Amino acid sequence: MQMLDERNKKVLCAVVQSYINYPQPVGSRVVTKRYSFGLSSATIRNIMADLEEMGFLTQPHTSAGRVPTDMGYRFFVDALVAQEYYYSNIDILQEVYKRLEALRNNLDVFLGETTKTLSKLSHYLGIAASPGLDKTIMKRIELLKFKANKVAVILFTDEGLIKNKVISFDFDFTQKDLNRIASYLNSEFSGRTFNEIRLMVLKEMSKEKTKCDRLILKAMKICREALSFPHSDLFVSGLSDVLDLPDFADLKKIRELSRAIEDKHTIIKLLDEVSESNGVQILIGSENSVDEMKKLSMVVATCRENGRPVGVVGIIGPTRMDYEKVIYIVDNTAKFITEMLAERWA
């Protein structure tokens, strides 16, 4: 990125902030009136032309003002993060804490409510994802006879998550058999990550059947099927609020946003990429790795328990996003959840 002198930096940030506040191209006279830079309108006009030439601003059409490019937004966001974004609103924090405190014992419900809170406070899309199961530790498994040849599997993790599914087999079980199998699986695999369990199961099942007890073989088959859950659960709230924004006034942008939400794997993929990172992560427009998200920005942060990622929370909105407020909300929400989870181990 090209270096900017202090004067250019101030004008660029002023243009970005003006466009965030008022979604219309920003002219030099607007910057002159709103900001006390001690510069003439002509000087600011020349600076804005230079910023456009460097790729920070663009002009929608001749004689119009300028709007930020993704590069311009990135400079603005990096400047906010460098000064630790001075936005502060204790009322917003209290709203977050009040809404989430009562749901601390059920992470799935908790994350769903988190997205509603994030959306309500930001007026953008609130998102949250529970962790993929690979690094999640199994606490215990329960097996219940459901119907003929069907078994209900209930998995409990150390993070308080409860996963359940119904599995069909070409052989029948008695509940006594299922109890024995569950007891065996709990004794062998409790306290291990799901990825470790999968590898152990594959190794056990690769043995010659004559060397493997028939009931144990069935237990391995149940365990293999039980662990085949989707990689993550995604929660999204606030689509109606986002569609009311002027940024989504045309049908093409609405369709792009809808596709991104409908294909949850798209968002999960992005969240997985940042889940191991510390602090707030901001992806702006073209920085997103998938096409459906290249007109959107995403601000996310990872929640941890004992240092291990247990979920990601964040906000998706247009590139013309109130980054200062959104970063503040996401950062403090993730920190609150992390601190709340730490209390369970205190």
How would you summarize what this structure contains?
With 346 residues, the chain is of the alpha+beta class.
What does this 3D model show about the protein?
With 346 residues, this protein is of the alpha+beta class. It has three domains: 6-82, Winged helix-like DNA-binding domain superfamily/Winged helix DNA-binding domain (Arc Repressor Mutant, subunit A, Orthogonal Bundle); 90-132 and 231-343, Beta-Lactamase (2-Layer Sandwich), CATH 3.30.450.40; 134-226, Enolase-like, domain 1. It has 13 helices and ten strands. The strands form three sheets. A five-stranded antiparallel β-sheet has the order 7-3-10-9-8, sandwiched between helices. The model has no long low-confidence stretch (mean pLDDT 83).
